[in-house]
Protein backbone atom coordinates (compact mmCIF):
# COMPACT_ATOMS: atom_id res chain seq x y z
CA UNK A 1 0.00 0.00 0.00
CA UNK A 2 1.21 3.53 -0.76
CA UNK A 3 0.73 6.89 0.79
CA UNK A 4 1.29 9.97 -1.25
CA UNK A 5 2.41 13.21 0.31
CA UNK A 6 1.99 16.76 -0.94
CA UNK A 7 2.26 17.25 -4.67
CA UNK A 8 5.69 18.32 -5.87
CA UNK A 9 7.35 17.27 -2.60
CA UNK A 10 9.94 14.54 -2.69
CA UNK A 11 11.67 13.19 0.40
CA UNK A 12 15.24 12.45 -0.62
CA UNK A 13 17.97 10.61 1.27
CA UNK A 14 21.03 12.65 2.14
CA UNK A 15 24.25 12.34 4.10
CA UNK A 16 25.15 15.71 5.57
CA UNK A 17 28.47 14.86 7.22
CA UNK A 18 31.31 13.61 4.96
CA UNK A 19 35.10 13.71 4.99
CA UNK A 20 37.76 13.04 2.39
CA UNK A 21 41.55 12.90 2.12
CA UNK A 22 41.44 16.69 2.37
CA UNK A 23 41.14 16.13 6.12
CA UNK A 24 41.23 12.75 7.84
CA UNK A 25 38.95 10.74 5.54
CA UNK A 26 40.04 7.93 3.27
CA UNK A 27 37.63 8.85 0.48
CA UNK A 28 38.88 10.90 -2.40
CA UNK A 29 36.27 13.41 -3.45
CA UNK A 30 35.28 11.27 -6.41
CA UNK A 31 35.20 8.00 -4.44
CA UNK A 32 32.96 9.66 -1.82
CA UNK A 33 30.49 10.73 -4.49
CA UNK A 34 30.62 7.31 -6.14
CA UNK A 35 29.96 5.62 -2.81
CA UNK A 36 27.06 7.98 -2.06
CA UNK A 37 25.43 7.05 -5.36
CA UNK A 38 25.92 3.35 -4.65
CA UNK A 39 24.19 3.87 -1.26
CA UNK A 40 21.19 5.37 -3.08
CA UNK A 41 21.75 8.76 -1.54
CA UNK A 42 20.44 11.70 -3.53
CA UNK A 43 22.81 14.31 -2.11
CA UNK A 44 25.74 14.73 0.26
CA UNK A 45 27.34 17.62 2.10
CA UNK A 46 31.12 17.79 1.83
CA UNK A 47 32.24 18.80 5.31
CA UNK A 48 35.95 18.19 5.75
CA UNK A 49 37.55 19.18 9.03
CA UNK A 50 38.63 22.81 8.85
CA UNK A 51 38.97 22.96 5.09
CA UNK A 52 36.86 23.40 2.01
CA UNK A 53 39.71 22.45 -0.32
CA UNK A 54 37.78 19.41 -1.57
CA UNK A 55 35.24 21.75 -3.10
CA UNK A 56 37.83 22.77 -5.73
CA UNK A 57 37.60 19.22 -7.13
CA UNK A 58 33.85 19.37 -7.69
CA UNK A 59 32.44 20.03 -11.13
CA UNK A 60 28.99 19.91 -12.70
CA UNK A 61 30.11 16.81 -14.63
CA UNK A 62 31.20 14.99 -11.46
CA UNK A 63 28.03 15.88 -9.56
CA UNK A 64 25.89 14.94 -12.52
CA UNK A 65 27.64 11.56 -12.79
CA UNK A 66 27.20 10.77 -9.10
CA UNK A 67 25.28 13.00 -6.66
CA UNK A 68 24.90 16.74 -6.09
CA UNK A 69 26.93 18.24 -3.26
CA UNK A 70 26.31 20.97 -0.72
CA UNK A 71 29.57 22.80 -0.08
CA UNK A 72 30.46 22.81 3.58
CA UNK A 73 33.07 22.51 6.26
CA UNK A 74 33.16 21.00 9.73
CA UNK A 75 34.57 23.53 12.12
CA UNK A 76 36.76 21.28 14.20
CA UNK A 77 37.32 23.55 17.12
CA UNK A 78 38.58 22.84 20.61
CA UNK A 79 35.20 22.58 22.37
CA UNK A 80 32.89 21.33 19.67
CA UNK A 81 32.43 20.47 16.02
CA UNK A 82 30.03 22.51 13.95
CA UNK A 83 28.81 21.86 10.41
CA UNK A 84 28.67 24.99 8.29
CA UNK A 85 26.93 24.56 4.95
CA UNK A 86 27.05 26.82 1.93
CA UNK A 87 28.12 30.09 3.54
CA UNK A 88 28.80 32.86 1.01
CA UNK A 89 32.22 33.54 2.44
CA UNK A 90 34.77 32.07 4.81
CA UNK A 91 34.18 32.72 8.49
CA UNK A 92 37.25 32.20 10.68
CA UNK A 93 36.55 30.07 13.75
CA UNK A 94 40.15 29.67 14.93
CA UNK A 95 39.88 32.47 17.47
CA UNK A 96 36.56 31.35 18.93
CA UNK A 97 36.47 31.15 22.71
CA UNK A 98 34.30 28.85 24.78
CA UNK A 99 31.84 31.71 25.30
CA UNK A 100 32.24 33.22 21.86
CA UNK A 101 30.42 30.82 19.56
CA UNK A 102 27.23 32.93 19.40
CA UNK A 103 29.11 35.61 17.52
CA UNK A 104 30.57 33.10 15.07
CA UNK A 105 27.19 31.52 14.45
CA UNK A 106 25.71 34.95 13.82
CA UNK A 107 28.47 35.65 11.30
CA UNK A 108 27.78 32.40 9.44
CA UNK A 109 24.08 33.14 9.32
CA UNK A 110 24.69 36.69 8.08
CA UNK A 111 26.63 35.12 5.24
CA UNK A 112 23.81 32.82 4.28
CA UNK A 113 25.23 29.63 5.78
CA UNK A 114 23.45 26.85 7.62
CA UNK A 115 24.61 25.91 11.10
CA UNK A 116 24.44 22.38 12.45
CA UNK A 117 25.83 21.05 15.69
CA UNK A 118 27.68 17.78 15.01
CA UNK A 119 27.52 14.77 17.37
CA UNK A 120 27.09 16.96 20.48
CA UNK A 121 27.62 14.12 22.97
CA UNK A 122 30.46 12.26 21.35
CA UNK A 123 33.35 11.40 23.67
CA UNK A 124 35.55 14.49 23.83
CA UNK A 125 39.24 15.25 24.25
CA UNK A 126 41.73 13.72 24.28
CA UNK A 127 40.10 10.57 22.83
CA UNK A 128 38.30 12.61 20.19
CA UNK A 129 39.49 16.19 20.28
CA UNK A 130 36.70 18.71 20.57
CA UNK A 131 34.10 16.11 19.60
CA UNK A 132 31.77 16.84 22.53
CA UNK A 133 29.90 20.14 22.27
CA UNK A 134 31.00 22.34 25.20
CA UNK A 135 30.52 25.81 23.75
CA UNK A 136 28.08 28.09 25.51
CA UNK A 137 25.32 28.99 23.08
CA UNK A 138 22.53 31.40 23.93
CA UNK A 139 21.39 32.04 20.35
CA UNK A 140 19.93 28.62 19.67
CA UNK A 141 17.43 30.41 17.45
CA UNK A 142 20.27 30.75 14.93
CA UNK A 143 21.08 27.03 14.90
CA UNK A 144 19.42 25.27 11.99
CA UNK A 145 19.92 21.64 12.96
CA UNK A 146 21.43 19.23 15.44
CA UNK A 147 22.95 15.91 14.43
CA UNK A 148 21.00 13.96 17.03
CA UNK A 149 21.80 10.51 15.64
CA UNK A 150 25.15 9.52 14.27
CA UNK A 151 27.24 6.56 13.17
CA UNK A 152 25.99 2.93 13.46
CA UNK A 153 22.71 1.68 14.96
CA UNK A 154 21.99 4.98 16.69
CA UNK A 155 18.89 3.97 18.61
CA UNK A 156 20.69 1.02 20.17
CA UNK A 157 24.04 2.71 20.78
CA UNK A 158 22.36 5.27 22.93
CA UNK A 159 25.34 6.93 24.60
CA UNK A 160 25.85 9.87 22.33
CA UNK A 161 22.53 9.61 20.55
CA UNK A 162 19.97 9.59 23.35
CA UNK A 163 21.70 12.46 25.11
CA UNK A 164 21.66 14.42 21.86
CA UNK A 165 17.96 13.71 21.37
CA UNK A 166 17.29 14.79 24.97
CA UNK A 167 19.22 18.01 24.44
CA UNK A 168 17.29 18.70 21.23
CA UNK A 169 13.97 17.92 22.93
CA UNK A 170 14.83 20.37 25.76
CA UNK A 171 15.58 23.11 23.24
CA UNK A 172 12.32 22.42 21.44
CA UNK A 173 10.52 22.57 24.80
CA UNK A 174 12.08 26.00 25.35
CA UNK A 175 10.48 27.11 22.09
CA UNK A 176 13.37 26.92 19.65
CA UNK A 177 12.76 25.69 16.11
CA UNK A 178 15.60 23.31 15.26
CA UNK A 179 15.63 20.46 12.75
CA UNK A 180 17.21 17.08 13.39
CA UNK A 181 19.77 15.31 11.24
CA UNK A 182 21.57 12.00 11.11
CA UNK A 183 25.31 11.88 10.34
CA UNK A 184 27.32 8.89 9.22
CA UNK A 185 30.31 11.16 9.91
CA UNK A 186 31.55 9.38 6.82
CA UNK A 187 35.32 9.04 6.58
CA UNK A 188 35.55 5.81 4.59
CA UNK A 189 33.32 3.01 3.41
CA UNK A 190 32.42 1.00 6.48
CA UNK A 191 31.50 -2.66 6.47
CA UNK A 192 28.07 -1.90 7.87
CA UNK A 193 27.16 -4.94 9.93
CA UNK A 194 24.35 -2.99 11.56
CA UNK A 195 22.11 -0.26 10.20
CA UNK A 196 23.58 3.16 9.61
CA UNK A 197 21.15 5.91 8.81
CA UNK A 198 20.47 8.91 6.68
CA UNK A 199 18.57 12.16 6.79
CA UNK A 200 15.46 12.44 4.63
CA UNK A 201 14.82 15.94 3.37
CA UNK A 202 11.70 17.31 1.67
CA UNK A 203 12.46 19.16 -1.53
CA UNK A 204 10.18 20.85 -3.99
CA UNK A 205 9.90 20.01 -7.63
CA UNK A 206 12.51 18.63 -9.95
CA UNK A 207 16.10 17.60 -9.27
CA UNK A 208 17.46 20.88 -10.56
CA UNK A 209 19.51 22.92 -8.10
CA UNK A 210 19.08 20.29 -5.42
CA UNK A 211 21.73 21.72 -3.05
CA UNK A 212 19.87 25.00 -2.70
CA UNK A 213 16.53 23.25 -2.33
CA UNK A 214 17.97 21.06 0.40
CA UNK A 215 19.45 24.06 2.11
CA UNK A 216 16.08 25.80 2.12
CA UNK A 217 14.38 22.64 3.36
CA UNK A 218 16.78 22.22 6.27
CA UNK A 219 16.34 25.87 7.18
CA UNK A 220 12.57 25.31 7.21
CA UNK A 221 12.94 22.20 9.36
CA UNK A 222 11.77 19.72 6.72
CA UNK A 223 13.83 16.73 7.74
CA UNK A 224 13.35 13.21 9.05
CA UNK A 225 16.00 11.05 10.69
CA UNK A 226 16.09 7.32 10.02
CA UNK A 227 18.15 4.20 10.51
CA UNK A 228 17.45 3.41 6.86
CA UNK A 229 13.87 3.22 5.59
CA UNK A 230 11.96 6.31 4.63
CA UNK A 231 9.08 7.23 6.93
CA UNK A 232 5.98 8.63 5.31
CA UNK A 233 3.89 11.11 7.26
CA UNK A 234 1.02 12.82 5.49
CA UNK A 235 -0.26 15.43 7.92
CA UNK A 236 -3.30 17.66 7.68
CA UNK A 237 -4.40 20.46 9.96
CA UNK A 238 -6.62 23.49 9.47
CA UNK A 239 -7.59 22.22 6.04
CA UNK A 240 -4.00 22.16 4.80
CA UNK A 241 -1.33 19.60 4.26
CA UNK A 242 1.56 20.36 6.60
CA UNK A 243 5.19 19.33 6.72
CA UNK A 244 7.73 19.17 9.54
CA UNK A 245 8.79 22.72 10.34
CA UNK A 246 5.28 24.10 9.70
CA UNK A 247 3.23 25.72 12.45
CA UNK A 248 -0.40 25.06 13.35
CA UNK A 249 -2.66 26.59 15.97
CA UNK A 250 -3.15 25.05 19.39
CA UNK A 251 -6.30 22.96 19.52
CA UNK A 252 -6.33 22.25 15.78
CA UNK A 253 -7.42 18.80 14.73
CA UNK A 254 -4.41 17.08 13.25
CA UNK A 255 -4.74 13.93 11.18
CA UNK A 256 -1.73 11.87 10.24
CA UNK A 257 -1.39 9.00 7.80
CA UNK A 258 1.81 7.28 8.73
CA UNK A 259 3.85 4.35 7.51
CA UNK A 260 7.36 3.16 6.89
CA UNK A 261 7.98 2.89 3.15
CA UNK A 262 8.95 -0.72 2.58
CA UNK A 263 10.34 -0.16 -0.90
CA UNK A 264 12.38 3.00 -1.07
CA UNK A 265 16.12 2.26 -0.89
CA UNK A 266 15.20 -1.16 0.49
CA UNK A 267 18.42 -2.71 -0.84
CA UNK A 268 20.24 -0.53 1.67
CA UNK A 269 18.34 -1.54 4.78
CA UNK A 270 16.09 -4.61 4.29
CA UNK A 271 18.93 -6.99 5.27
CA UNK A 272 18.66 -5.71 8.85
CA UNK A 273 15.14 -7.02 9.28
CA UNK A 274 13.11 -3.90 9.99
CA UNK A 275 9.70 -4.64 11.54
CA UNK A 276 7.70 -1.44 12.17
CA UNK A 277 5.49 -1.87 15.26
CA UNK A 278 4.20 1.54 16.26
CA UNK A 279 4.09 5.25 15.59
CA UNK A 280 3.92 7.75 18.40
CA UNK A 281 3.26 11.46 18.43
CA UNK A 282 5.64 13.00 20.95
CA UNK A 283 5.00 16.49 22.31
CA UNK A 284 6.55 18.83 24.83
CA UNK A 285 8.63 17.25 27.58
CA UNK A 286 8.45 13.94 25.75
CA UNK A 287 4.74 13.48 26.41
CA UNK A 288 3.06 10.86 24.25
CA UNK A 289 0.13 12.66 22.62
CA UNK A 290 -1.03 9.71 20.54
CA UNK A 291 0.10 6.24 19.61
CA UNK A 292 -0.94 3.66 17.07
CA UNK A 293 0.20 0.13 16.36
CA UNK A 294 1.54 -0.53 12.89
CA UNK A 295 0.93 -3.62 10.84
CA UNK A 296 4.39 -3.86 9.29
CA UNK A 297 4.86 -1.51 6.36
CA UNK A 298 1.16 -0.70 6.03
CA UNK A 299 -0.26 2.75 6.70
CA UNK A 300 -2.20 3.77 9.78
CA UNK A 301 -4.17 6.84 10.81
CA UNK A 302 -3.70 9.02 13.87
CA UNK A 303 -5.99 11.90 14.86
CA UNK A 304 -5.32 14.22 17.78
CA UNK A 305 -5.62 17.81 18.95
CA UNK A 306 -2.51 19.94 18.64
CA UNK A 307 -1.09 20.91 22.00
CA UNK A 308 1.00 24.03 22.48
CA UNK A 309 4.68 23.69 21.68
CA UNK A 310 5.55 21.07 19.12
CA UNK A 311 5.02 17.47 18.13
CA UNK A 312 6.99 14.95 16.14
CA UNK A 313 6.28 11.45 14.93
CA UNK A 314 8.48 8.62 16.18
CA UNK A 315 8.44 5.18 14.54
CA UNK A 316 9.50 2.17 16.60
CA UNK A 317 9.75 -1.54 16.05
CA UNK A 318 12.29 -4.30 15.73
CA UNK A 319 15.59 -4.07 13.91
CA UNK A 320 17.96 -7.04 13.99
CA UNK A 321 15.53 -8.42 16.58
CA UNK A 322 16.14 -5.45 18.85
CA UNK A 323 13.27 -3.32 20.10
CA UNK A 324 14.19 0.24 19.18
CA UNK A 325 13.29 3.48 17.45
CA UNK A 326 13.47 3.32 13.66
CA UNK A 327 12.96 6.89 12.56
CA UNK A 328 11.42 10.20 13.54
CA UNK A 329 10.41 13.48 12.00
CA UNK A 330 11.63 16.91 12.86
CA UNK A 331 8.97 18.83 14.79
CA UNK A 332 5.78 20.41 13.68
CA UNK A 333 5.20 23.52 15.80
CA UNK A 334 2.04 24.59 17.60
CA UNK A 335 1.32 28.19 18.54
CA UNK A 336 -1.34 29.19 21.00
CA UNK A 337 -4.24 30.80 19.11
CA UNK A 338 -3.31 34.34 20.19
CA UNK A 339 0.31 34.00 19.03
CA UNK A 340 1.25 35.24 15.59
CA UNK A 341 2.18 32.36 13.35
CA UNK B 1 64.73 26.53 -9.40
CA UNK B 2 66.08 28.27 -6.29
CA UNK B 3 64.82 27.26 -2.85
CA UNK B 4 65.00 29.55 0.20
CA UNK B 5 63.92 29.08 3.78
CA UNK B 6 61.23 31.64 4.55
CA UNK B 7 60.53 30.61 8.12
CA UNK B 8 61.68 28.02 10.59
CA UNK B 9 60.73 27.35 14.15
CA UNK B 10 61.38 24.78 16.83
CA UNK B 11 59.35 24.89 19.97
CA UNK B 12 58.32 22.75 22.89
CA UNK B 13 54.67 22.56 23.83
CA UNK B 14 53.26 21.13 27.04
CA UNK B 15 49.96 19.64 28.11
CA UNK B 16 48.67 23.07 29.04
CA UNK B 17 49.19 24.15 25.42
CA UNK B 18 46.17 22.03 24.55
CA UNK B 19 43.34 24.10 23.09
CA UNK B 20 45.64 27.00 22.24
CA UNK B 21 46.53 28.37 18.83
CA UNK B 22 49.92 29.90 18.00
CA UNK B 23 50.15 32.24 15.03
CA UNK B 24 53.38 32.97 13.17
CA UNK B 25 53.84 35.41 10.32
CA UNK B 26 56.33 34.84 7.54
CA UNK B 27 57.33 36.99 4.62
CA UNK B 28 56.94 35.68 1.11
CA UNK B 29 59.17 37.65 -1.30
CA UNK B 30 58.21 38.59 -4.82
CA UNK B 31 58.88 35.90 -7.38
CA UNK B 32 58.04 32.96 -5.09
CA UNK B 33 56.32 30.29 -7.17
CA UNK B 34 55.73 27.56 -4.64
CA UNK B 35 55.55 27.31 -0.86
CA UNK B 36 56.67 24.12 0.86
CA UNK B 37 55.71 23.41 4.45
CA UNK B 38 57.48 20.73 6.46
CA UNK B 39 55.70 20.34 9.78
CA UNK B 40 56.40 17.71 12.38
CA UNK B 41 55.97 16.96 16.03
CA UNK B 42 57.30 14.31 18.33
CA UNK B 43 56.33 12.16 20.14
CA UNK B 44 53.24 11.16 18.20
CA UNK B 45 51.44 9.34 20.98
CA UNK B 46 51.45 8.70 24.68
CA UNK B 47 53.42 5.71 25.87
CA UNK B 48 51.51 2.65 26.95
CA UNK B 49 51.15 2.44 30.71
CA UNK B 50 49.12 3.27 33.77
CA UNK B 51 49.11 6.99 33.11
CA UNK B 52 47.57 6.48 29.67
CA UNK B 53 44.96 4.10 31.04
CA UNK B 54 44.02 6.66 33.68
CA UNK B 55 43.64 9.37 31.06
CA UNK B 56 41.40 7.16 28.93
CA UNK B 57 39.26 6.24 31.92
CA UNK B 58 39.01 9.85 33.05
CA UNK B 59 37.92 10.89 29.56
CA UNK B 60 35.26 8.18 29.33
CA UNK B 61 33.98 9.00 32.80
CA UNK B 62 33.76 12.68 31.95
CA UNK B 63 32.02 12.34 28.61
CA UNK B 64 29.92 9.22 29.06
CA UNK B 65 28.18 9.65 32.38
CA UNK B 66 25.33 7.45 33.51
CA UNK B 67 22.54 6.68 32.95
CA UNK B 68 23.08 6.35 29.21
CA UNK B 69 26.24 4.29 29.12
CA UNK B 70 25.87 1.90 31.96
CA UNK B 71 27.50 -0.89 30.01
CA UNK B 72 30.56 1.11 29.11
CA UNK B 73 30.86 2.57 32.59
CA UNK B 74 30.53 -0.89 34.05
CA UNK B 75 33.58 -1.84 32.02
CA UNK B 76 35.44 1.16 33.36
CA UNK B 77 34.55 0.45 36.96
CA UNK B 78 35.16 -3.27 36.56
CA UNK B 79 38.73 -2.37 35.75
CA UNK B 80 38.57 -3.02 32.03
CA UNK B 81 42.06 -2.91 30.61
CA UNK B 82 42.37 0.08 28.35
CA UNK B 83 46.11 -0.39 27.87
CA UNK B 84 45.73 -0.85 24.11
CA UNK B 85 43.66 2.29 23.75
CA UNK B 86 45.93 4.79 21.97
CA UNK B 87 46.11 8.46 22.87
CA UNK B 88 47.67 10.72 20.27
CA UNK B 89 48.94 14.25 20.25
CA UNK B 90 47.11 16.22 17.59
CA UNK B 91 48.63 19.42 16.30
CA UNK B 92 47.59 20.88 12.97
CA UNK B 93 48.65 23.76 10.76
CA UNK B 94 46.51 26.11 8.75
CA UNK B 95 47.72 28.82 6.35
CA UNK B 96 46.49 32.30 5.40
CA UNK B 97 47.85 34.19 2.39
CA UNK B 98 49.03 37.80 2.28
CA UNK B 99 45.43 39.04 1.96
CA UNK B 100 44.41 37.13 5.07
CA UNK B 101 42.51 34.59 2.97
CA UNK B 102 42.31 31.10 4.39
CA UNK B 103 44.21 28.65 2.18
CA UNK B 104 43.42 25.52 4.16
CA UNK B 105 44.46 23.08 6.81
CA UNK B 106 45.60 19.48 7.04
CA UNK B 107 43.50 18.21 9.90
CA UNK B 108 44.62 14.62 10.33
CA UNK B 109 46.61 12.45 12.71
CA UNK B 110 49.97 12.66 10.97
CA UNK B 111 52.96 13.76 13.03
CA UNK B 112 55.06 14.57 9.98
CA UNK B 113 53.39 16.45 7.17
CA UNK B 114 54.83 17.96 3.99
CA UNK B 115 52.61 20.33 2.07
CA UNK B 116 52.95 22.45 -1.01
CA UNK B 117 50.96 25.38 -2.31
CA UNK B 118 51.34 26.93 -5.73
CA UNK B 119 49.19 28.64 -8.32
CA UNK B 120 48.22 25.40 -10.01
CA UNK B 121 48.18 22.81 -7.29
CA UNK B 122 48.13 22.25 -3.56
CA UNK B 123 48.42 19.35 -1.18
CA UNK B 124 45.25 17.81 0.22
CA UNK B 125 43.54 20.24 2.56
CA UNK B 126 44.90 23.38 0.88
CA UNK B 127 43.73 25.37 -2.09
CA UNK B 128 45.97 26.54 -4.92
CA UNK B 129 47.03 30.19 -4.56
CA UNK B 130 48.85 32.67 -6.85
CA UNK B 131 51.54 33.13 -4.11
CA UNK B 132 51.83 36.89 -3.91
CA UNK B 133 54.46 38.82 -2.03
CA UNK B 134 53.52 39.78 1.49
CA UNK B 135 53.12 38.66 5.02
CA UNK B 136 51.57 35.22 5.24
CA UNK B 137 50.47 33.48 8.42
CA UNK B 138 50.64 29.99 9.77
CA UNK B 139 48.43 28.91 12.68
CA UNK B 140 49.60 25.98 14.81
CA UNK B 141 46.56 24.53 16.52
CA UNK B 142 47.11 22.31 19.55
CA UNK B 143 44.06 20.09 19.66
CA UNK B 144 45.68 17.70 22.10
CA UNK B 145 49.03 17.43 23.85
CA UNK B 146 48.78 14.25 25.86
CA UNK B 147 52.48 13.66 26.41
CA UNK B 148 54.36 15.66 29.06
CA UNK B 149 55.89 17.71 26.26
CA UNK B 150 56.05 17.67 22.48
CA UNK B 151 58.70 19.12 20.16
CA UNK B 152 57.25 20.93 17.19
CA UNK B 153 59.29 21.83 14.10
CA UNK B 154 58.13 23.97 11.22
CA UNK B 155 60.19 24.77 8.12
CA UNK B 156 58.62 26.82 5.36
CA UNK B 157 60.54 27.14 2.11
CA UNK B 158 59.88 29.18 -0.97
CA UNK B 159 60.68 28.06 -4.48
CA UNK B 160 61.65 30.81 -6.93
Q: Characterize the overall form of chain A.
A: globular
What's the level 1 CATH class of chain A? Answer: Alpha Beta
- Element order of chain A: H for helix, E for strand: EHEHEEHEEHEEHEEEEEHEEEEEE
CATH topology of the largest domain in chain B, anyone? Jelly Rolls
Number of helices of chain B: 2
Overall average pLDDT of chain A: 94
- Give the CATH superfamily of chain A: Metal-dependent hydrolases
CATH topology tier name of chain A: TIM Barrel
Query: Got a strand count of chain B?
Result: 8
Strand content of chain A: 35-45%
- CA radius of gyration of chain B is 20 Å
State the shape of chain B. Answer: elongated
Largest sheet of chain A: 15 strands, mixed
Helicity range of chain A: 10-25%
Sum this structure up briefly.
The complex is a heterodimer of chains A (341) and B (160). Chain A is of the alpha+beta class and 341 residues long. Helix content of chain A is 17%, strand content 35%.
Structure overview:
- The complex is a heterodimer of chains A (341) and B (160).
- Chain A is an alpha+beta fold.
- Chain A has a single domain (9-335), classed as TIM Barrel (Alpha-Beta Barrel), CATH 3.20.20.140.
- Chain A has helices at residues 29-38, 60-65, 101-110, 158-173, 210-220, 266-269; strands spanning 9-18, 43-46, 69-77, 80-85, 114-117, 145-150, 179-183, 198-204, 223-226, 230-237, 240-242, 247-249, 253-261, 275-282, 288-293, 300-305, 309-319, 322-329, 332-335.
- In chain A, the strands form two sheets. Chain A has a 15-stranded mixed sheet that branches. A four-stranded antiparallel sheet of chain A has the order 11-10-13-16, with no helix packed on it.
- In chain A, strand 3 and strand 4 form a beta hairpin.
- The radius of gyration of chain A is 19 Å and the shape is globular.
- Chain A starts with 8 loop residues before the first strand and ends in a 6-residue tail after the last strand.
- The model of chain A has no long low-confidence stretch (mean pLDDT 94).
- By secondary structure, chain B is mainly beta.
- Chain B folds into two domains: 3-45 and 88-159, Jelly Rolls, CATH 2.60.120; 47-86, no CATH class.
- Chain B is 14% helix and 44% strand.
- In chain B, the strands form two sheets. A four-stranded antiparallel sheet of chain B has the order 1-8-3-6, with no helix packed on it. In chain B, strands 2-7-4-5 form a four-stranded antiparallel sheet, with no helix packed on it.
- The model of chain B has no long low-confidence stretch (mean pLDDT 91).
- Chains A and B meet through helix 4 of A and helix 1, strand 4, strand 5 and strand 7 of B.
